[in-house]
Amino acid sequence: MKDIIRSILEDSLRIKRAGIEHHLDTLVLAAQALTDCINRRHRIFIFGNGGSAADAQHLAAEFVNRFRIERSPLPAIALTTDTSVLTSIGNDYSFDDVFAKQISALGTKGDLAWGISTSGNSKNVVKALDASRGLGMTTLGMTGRGGQVASLSDLLLTVDAENTARIQETHITMGHILCELVDRLLYPDQF
Question: How much of the chain, in percent, has pLDDT values that exceed 90?
Answer without folding.
Answer: 99
